[in-house]
Amino acid sequence: MERIDCDRMFVAVMELGSFTKAAERIGTSSGQASKLISKLEQNLGVQLLKRTTRSLVPTDVGRAYYDGIKQILDNFDALDDSVRNSAQTPSGRLRVSVPVTFGISVLTPHFMQFAKSHPRISLDIKYEDRAVNIVDEGYDLALRVGLLNDSSLIARKLTDIRVMTVASPAYLERYGTPTQLSDLAEHHLVIDSNFRDPNHWTFNNEKGEIVYVRVDGRLRFSNATVCQQAAIDGLGITKLPSFVANEAIEAGLLSPILEDFEVAALGLFALYPPSKHLAQTSRAFIDFLVQQLRESRDW
């Protein structure tokens, strides 16, 4: 337990007179509040509060400690706010891991614009699809399509990415156009193994309910652009994010199918370790991308 957490809890208990109310202010349980106070007393080697079934009464030492630590915490918070507010122009190094295809196809122009508008921030962008360990590998952020399994990270959604089911006109002419989800079992499928669950394709049925269709295919690739090329070459039906498929559809190389069964969108998330204060460089980067992606939905 951090010492400052114990001190903040003690101040809250002194000011509110109960573990329950203090816990509500801090955002924890009354049991955790009691543990923090006990830990503080253990570290100091003194009793700060006399506990009865009806009340909490500070000892003389407890009153003196409250007066001192309250001033220290107030000064600490004032200094913290002063430093943060003084840095109105974010500066420093920002190291970010981004997915390869979406990063190159959509995000890179926004990175360039961010670099122009934030000259005091040094960008270190890594294009990679693997699951990185943000803390151990020294990243400030990771941008990922779909949530990762690491529940210790904070995830902020930046935008939705539309996904489409497509095939080439030549393939559809030869094998027919599926009109029901069950028809997929009779077709050649090209699987993007980079999806979180490549063995299931997600759709919305006629009732608007999410359904998972188990899929298998002779061809599996870990890159959407390669899956697109396989579909263009008439090798099967595939699922592609719209930013990959749009140009080929406009050129007549691919045709969208099963449009009555809207494919569930994928979320683009910014992932970062939990912290009371997100670094200004990271916050500026995330806020910038949210705004840019909202304004430029041509993908």
UniProtKB/TrEMBL annotation:
Domain of life: Bacteria
UniProt GO molecular function: DNA-binding transcription factor activity; sequence-specific DNA binding
Presence of the UniProt keyword rRNA-binding in the record: no
Keyword Ribonucleoprotein: no
Record-linked Pfam families: HTH_1, LysR_substrate
Family: Belongs to the LysR transcriptional regulatory family.
Protein name in the entry: LysR family transcriptional regulator
Native species: Vibrio viridaestus
